Amino acid sequence: MEFLNSLAQLMNGGLLAIAEGVSPMLIILALLLTSLVLVSLALVRFQQSLLIGYFLCGVAVANSGLLKLAGPEFHHSMAGFAEVGVVLLMFTIGIEFSLAELKHLRHTAFVGGGIQCGLTMLLAFVVFKLCGFSVVQGLVAAVAVAVSSTAVSMKTFQSLGIPAGPSSRATLGIALFQDLLVIFFMVMLPALSKSATGAGEDSHLWGSLAGTMGNGAIFAVAVWLLGRYVVPRVMLAVSNTRSRELFTLMVVALCAGVTCLAAALGLSPALGAFVAGLVASGSIYSHRVMADILPFKDLFLTLFFVSIGLTIDVGILSQNLPSVVAFTLALILVKAAVVALACRALHLTWRAGLMTTAALASAGEFSLILMTRSKAQMPWDEVFVQVFNTSGAISMALVPTLMRAVPNIADWLERKGYAKTKKTAAVNADYKQKIKSLRGHAVLCGYGHVGAALHKSLAKYGIEVLVIELNVDTVRTLKRQGISVLYADAAQRETWELARLHDASLVAFTFPDARIAFEAIQLVKEFNAEVPILARSRFASDRGRLLDRGATAVVQDESEAATSMLRYAEGIYHELESGSGEDGRPERQD
User: Fold this and answer.
1) Between the CA of residue 412 and those of 139, 311, 415, what are the distances in Å?
2) CA-to-CA distance for 44 and 437, rounded, in angstroms?
3) Of 514, 358, 371, whose CA–CA distance to 445 is shortest?
4) Per-residue confidence (pLDDT) for residue 436, from 0 to 100
């Protein structure tokens, strides 16, 4: 800390002398953004969430003395950037929010999400109330504890190569319910804040809520009229100009306009931004709108997390370090226990439930947003806010580590006999019987254009096929066609137990994601070390790793993947019939 203070003093004299005439705030902002890039590079190397790096950079700058260069206007500017970041975040959530996906995941969302949010809020509210919080403060803090970081968990699922597995689908369903909860609470927050600062909190509450609901009805009607008669015509006119700059300007104007309309009616600006996103999502230009707004959202959301870090006083935290540790552990353990109950209610396998538990056992972006926004509207103890924000950030930082540790933990539990793998009932009795009768079949993992072409070609040779697929629509279509198919994850042990791998004559990974194939090949070899394996890869390095892991042949040509796989498959079956290999098995195709 002494070094940082000395450095700040040097910069106070040196930088201002070098950059005479340049705003000190601009100098600090340049230093801050540069440090963000460097810290982000380090976090990417260690596969950690970048959001945590932004928070830590804010903490470092706030406690180094560098802010003395910029003066008090820097905090006001950062607060303005943070407000824009929250608005743009809600706007993109509105664009991405899918009623069709919510309908598809309604059981997971309302059962799993209802249990997780309901129990977490109840437990948190009771604890905060016993600690002397008011009703409104307890409710705000309870909601902040209930929500989790969707961005961190879903990005980790992608890095682990299981973006569409049962655990990621369960996490997404519960996260959808959390989004609905936050949106509803954003509507109520201004009214709750007014009642919390009034002389009689309970007497003002219902009147404030009634006024908010009335303004909400007016807002809904106004936005419906805009979305029905105004916005589509404006979008069409702007699109016809073929001007990218004008289209981007129109998108920002739509977001800002509806946000200001909500604020004028006494509603949350975040709600206005979300509704503006819904309006844009209903048009054919939604993907272009998303492409134009994402760079702005990422920049300002980065500054939001930096602004939260700037409010952290290391001196206060050092005096309350036991509270930070205790709150972080309590947050993770309590949420993990509640999420585990929700996973049990959803009948997930224990492995999938363990991964979902790790993904949701933290605070989230909206936890920090709710706490920060409510701090400006109602009285909060400064120590509690700093402890809460720090613990929330730490819990988010631990999510990738917890999720990567799940497979090892699961294997250890199985070896110790604390958990047993159960076959999942992914298919009905008729399908189970049909699959049990398969002999000499080929197992195709994935049924895109490559999988479909390979299936068609194998059928000409009279080879039966079992498809492993995670796309529900594809599974339904294949079932209607009478094709043997499992709705399952190739990276899970239970899948290969169901696939009768010991009787299979070929396994083909028809998708190009080498990470999933690399993990699945190990499972295949455990069940049947002799079965030929075909795989795809995008990069030469992945090809070599797949061959070393045990793949018989790896296709790298994307344009002719189906043809190449079929050629290898024909060679494999020809060698199987002739027994041309020394041990009667096909040789590896290097």
Assistant:
1) 39, 42, 5
2) 48
3) 514
4) 60
Specify burial of residue 65 (Cβ count, 10 A radius: 0-12, 13-18, 19+).
middle
Closest CA to 180 of 220, 227, 146: 146
Tell me what pLDDT residue 113 has. Answer: 92
pTM for this prediction: 0.64
Q: Residue 506's closest CA among 439, 450, 558? A: 439
pLDDT, mean over the chain? 77
Report DSSP state, residue 129. Answer: H
Residue 114's SS3 state is: helix
More confident call, 291 vs 1: 291
- pLDDT of 118 above 90: yes
Q: What is the DSSP string of 84-96?
A: HHHHHHHHHHHHH
Name the maximum alpha-carbon separation found in the chain.
90
DSSP 66: G
Contacts with 556 (C-beta within 8 Å, 6 or more apart), sequence order: 536, 537, 538, 539, 540, 543
CA 465 to CA 234: how far, in whole Å? 52
3-class state of residue 589 by DSSP? strand
Residue from 475, 536, 535, 466 nearest 502 by CA:
466
Is 206 or 418 the better-scoring residue by pLDDT? Answer: 418
**pLDDT tens by residue, 420-475:** 554 444 434 444 555 666 778 889 998 888 888 888 888 777 788 899 987 767 88
Looking at residue 108, what DSSP letter applies?
A: I
Question: Cα angle vertex 238, ends 236, 243, to 5°?
Answer: 135
Burial 482-504 (b: 16+ CB within 10 A, else e): ebbbbbbbbbbbbbbbbbbbeeb
What's the chain's Rg over C-alpha atoms? 28
Phi-psi region of 169 (alpha: psi -120 to 50; beta: other; left: phi over 0): alpha
Contact by Cβ (8 Å): 244, 262: no
Identify which of 131, 516, 170 has the alpha carbon closest to the alpha carbon of residue 342.
Answer: 170
Q: Is 509 helix (H, G, I), strand (E, B) or coil?
A: strand
> The tokens 């933290």 sit on which residue?
362
H-helix or E-strand spanning residue 533: strand 533-536
Q: What pLDDT digit, counting tens, does each position of 129-138 carry?
A: 998 888 888 8
Would you state the pLDDT for residue 373?
75
| Per-residue pLDDT at 104 exceeds 50 | yes
- Encode burial over 413-423: b for 16+ CB neighbours within 10 A, e otherwise: eeeeeebeeee
Which residues are bridge partners to 517 per DSSP?
none
Q: List helix spans (H) across 376-440.
A: 382-416, 429-436
pLDDT of 19 over the 60 cut: no
∠71-75-77 over CA atoms, to 5°?
Answer: 105
The whole-angstrom separation of Cα 530 and Cα 524 is 9
- Classify strands 506-509 and 533-536 as parallel, antiparallel or unpaired: parallel
Question: Which of 173-177, 343-347, 459-463, 466-470 is least confident?
Answer: 459-463
DSSP 201: H
